Amino acid sequence: QEIRKVVQALEQTAREILTLLQGVHQGAGFQDIPKKCQKAREHFATVRTQMESLKTKFPADQYYRFHEHWRFVLQRLVFLAAFVVYLESETLVTREAVAEILGIEADRERGFHLDIEDYLSGVLTLASELARLAVNSVTAGDYSRPLRISTFINELDSGFRLLNLKNDSLRKRYDGLKYDVKKIEEVVYDLSIRGLNKEAPVGVGGEK
């Protein structure tokens, strides 16, 4: 019951961060990106406080016994942290950096930590969000962003191809990545056909 209460508070904070970051998809949202990221980081201070509280609700050595209670919200928070870092620097956040943003450990041996599969799951959610951002960038008249997103997602896909994913739900999520790659490639292809992106070679994304 105590764990559930803290998890509900974390879910509420995650919703607030998500609502804030969804604003980048609106037309005027692109000008506001630094401000939105700064506000999101302020919300992560609340997340760290809530995580501190969660750590006290169960014995440190029983992390995996209760893991299901917070697994979903933790994956969502990983995605949100990854999205903020991407919007700030267009780079992929490391597991260590996410753990720091959330106020938890990266190493399993050190107690309440960020499980590697939760990290990977959050990163895959980021890919879907960026596919959506690529489409909305065009609507907002930002024609170079989809190309940068395409490069990033292709590198991400290459990284995932090196992994031997045993977890079924993670494997399923990874299968969705190829659709995100295809969706972004189609955006880049359409831009190049229309001559709106001089950097994009005609033919990116294959045949239409």
Report what the structure shows.
GO terms for molecular function: endonuclease activity; hydrolase activity; metal ion binding; RNA binding; sequence-specific DNA binding; single-stranded DNA binding. The protein has about 210 residues and is mostly helical. Helices cover about 70% and strands about 0% of the residues. The protein contains 7 helices and no strands. Helix 1 packs antiparallel against helix 2 (about 35-55) and helix 3 (about 65-90) crosses helix 4 (about 95-100). The protein is globular, with a radius of gyration of 18 Å. The N and C termini lie far apart (about 55 Å).
Largest sheet: none
- Assign an overall shape: globular
How many strand segments?
A: 0
> Any low-confidence stretches, pLDDT <50, length ≥5?
200-208
The name of the CATH superfamily reads Translin, domain 2
Terminal CA distance: 53 Å
Which properties best describe this structure?
mainly alpha, Methane Monooxygenase Hydroxylase, Chain G, domain 1, 208 residues, 7 helices, single chain
Set down the secondary structure blueprint:
Blueprint: H1 2-22, H2 33-55, H3 63-89, H4 95-102, H5 116-139, H6 145-161, H7 168-193
